[in-house]
Amino acid sequence: MKTIQDYLNSGAVDIAPLLSLVLNQSNVELITQSDYQLTPTEKQKLDSFIQQRIDGMPFSYISGTKGFYHLDFKVTPDTLIPRPETELLIDISLELFSKNQKCHVLDLGTGSGIIAITLADIKPRWTLCATDFSQAALKVAKINATTDIDFFQGNWFDAITDKRFNLIISNPPYIKDEDSYLNDLIHEPISALTAGKDGLNDIRIIIDQAPKYLLKDGYLLLEHGHDQQSKIVKLLSKNFTNIQTFKDYNSNDRAILAQVK
User: Fold this and answer.
1) DSSP of 178-210
2) Could you tell me which residue, 184 or 86, shows the higher pLDDT?
C-alpha cells in the first residue's frame, strides 16, 4: 500500500493538489499525516487523476473548480479555465462609475460566467446581462451565479437586440487559428479561443456592433492578445473616443477601454 509520502515523493505533476482533492485534506494535513496509507479506492481514483494530468488534462477540469477574483467557479471542458489576466477587466470596470451609480452591464461570451458573476456580486446595484452561443457554457454559468443575472443564448449581440448598456465587456476569442500556443490548450473549447487568421474576427464584430447597444457615453472594454493592441485602437477610432490601453500583471498589453462617440 502506498502512503501519502510515497506519492509526494513521486514527482507527479500537481501531486499535492491531487492528493488534497482525493483525500479532502489541506496541504498541512497531508504533511502531518504523511504516513497514511491510501485505500484501494482512493489509490484508484488518485492514479486516474495522475494519468489525466500526464495526458495534459488541466487540474481545474479534474477538480471541477477554479478561483477567480474573490469567488470559486465551477468549470468544465465546455468553458475556458479562468485566467488571472482577466481579473484586470474587473479592476477596470469597478473604477469606471461612481460608488452608488446604477449601471446596466453586458458580458459578451460569458463562458462560465466569471466576469458577470463577479461584477454582480461586488456591485449589487448593477444590472448584469450575459450572453454566450454555447448552451452548455450557459448551463455552467447559471450554476455559478450568486445573484440574479439575465443569461441569453446567442452569438454576440444576437440575443439582446432590444437592450442598451452603460458598459459592454468581453473576453472574446483572440488567438490566431494556427497559433502554436493552441498546442497547450487542446482540452479547452477551441471555439472560445480562436478568431481567424489574425485573431481579430470576433473583436471586429463586437467593435462594429457595440455602438448600437451602448447608452450615451457608454464604454466598451475588451481583453485581447499581447500583440493586437495597435490594430484594435485603429478599429475603435471610427466610432469611439477616450481610448485607454492597459497592461496585465505581467506587463503585457492585455485590455482596451473606449467610450462611444
Assistant:
1) T-GGGGG-TTS-GGGTB-SSSS-HHHHHHHHHG
2) 86
Residue 202 has pLDDT above 80, yes or no: yes
The residue segments making up the domain with residue 22 are 4-55
For residue 194, is pLDDT > 90? Answer: no
Among 43, 115, 27, which Cα is nearest to 79's? Answer: 115
- What the block records as the C-alpha cell of 25 is 485534506
Q: CATH number, domain at 204?
A: 3.40.50.150
Residue position matching grid coordinates 471541477: 64
Cα–Cα distance between 258 and 241 in angstroms, integer?
6
Look at residue 15 in the predicted model and tell me its pLDDT.
95
Is 154 found in the same domain as 31? no
Distances (CA, A) of 125 to 130, 187, 209: 16, 37, 26
Distance, in Å, from the CA atom of 140 to the CA atom of 67, rounded to the nearest integer, reads 15
User: What band does 245 get if pLDDT is binned at 50, 70 and 90?
Assistant: very high
Question: What pLDDT does 152 receive?
Answer: 95
Query: Nine-digit cell at 233?
Result: 485602437
Distance CA 109, CA 252 (A): 22
Would residue 24 count as lying in a domain?
Answer: yes
Taking the model in full, what pTM does it have? 0.91
The answer to whether residues 169 and 108 touch, using CB atoms and an 8 Å cutoff, is yes
